[in-house]
């Protein structure tokens, strides 16, 4: 299972181990962590929610997109949900490739795609309130009701 | 019967994580309109929809037994 949603603390090494290969010359990891200050506002903790079955499917889809672009890559992604404290790890992406440049590029691609198409939401909890993050300013609209083709496949 | 799932702020506004509706042969767009009127939520134009766990566009026609998820802009990572 290279693509997982978990309620528990993520074991980073366990995610890395899934992509270790004799053919790999590089492994990149992206570790998304819970930040305390966002534009001057102090977060107490975060709460992540996922549409879990679909989120796993979408992570697998991102894995397929990466495989098409970097055929020799191996990808593993684990995203945590539930209550996360400041400095906790929310997501780990590990990608191995024969050469380092591809491993960096593919990893960047993976996190950007997660932020576009994987049904996971975070709520920031502050001292004086809380808010689901995503589109409070309505800067993103989906007139067709789903991401544009380029958002899905680009 | 169609099951509709809600997440994040939509779940809070609607006050439930899912509802079932007696409808079929209608589009996602009319489903959204119905929910928007019934539950007085007006931000559904920024919400994506998935049918049986795949993103679907507004004109998708729903069939009996479909599971529709209304998906606000995501914020994972």
From TrEMBL, chain A:
<dbReference type="InterPro" id="IPR003448">
    <property type="entry name" value="Mopterin_biosynth_MoaE"/>
</dbReference>
<keyword id="KW-0808">Transferase</keyword>
<protein>
    <submittedName>
        <fullName>Molybdopterin synthase catalytic subunit</fullName>
        <ecNumber>2.8.1.12</ecNumber>
    </submittedName>
</protein>
<dbReference type="Pfam" id="PF02391">
    <property type="entry name" value="MoaE"/>
</dbReference>
<dbReference type="GO" id="GO:0030366">
    <property type="term" value="F:molybdopterin synthase activity"/>
</dbReference>
<dbReference type="InterPro" id="IPR036563">
    <property type="entry name" value="MoaE_sf"/>
</dbReference>
Automatic annotation (TrEMBL), chain B:
<dbReference type="InterPro" id="IPR003749">
    <property type="entry name" value="ThiS/MoaD-like"/>
</dbReference>
<protein>
    <recommendedName>
        <fullName>Molybdopterin synthase sulfur carrier subunit</fullName>
    </recommendedName>
</protein>
<dbReference type="InterPro" id="IPR012675">
    <property type="entry name" value="Beta-grasp_dom_sf"/>
</dbReference>
<dbReference type="InterPro" id="IPR044672">
    <property type="entry name" value="MOCS2A"/>
</dbReference>
<keyword id="KW-0547">Nucleotide-binding</keyword>
<dbReference type="Pfam" id="PF02597">
    <property type="entry name" value="ThiS"/>
</dbReference>
<dbReference type="InterPro" id="IPR016155">
    <property type="entry name" value="Mopterin_synth/thiamin_S_b"/>
</dbReference>
<comment type="similarity">
    <text>Belongs to the MoaD family.</text>
</comment>
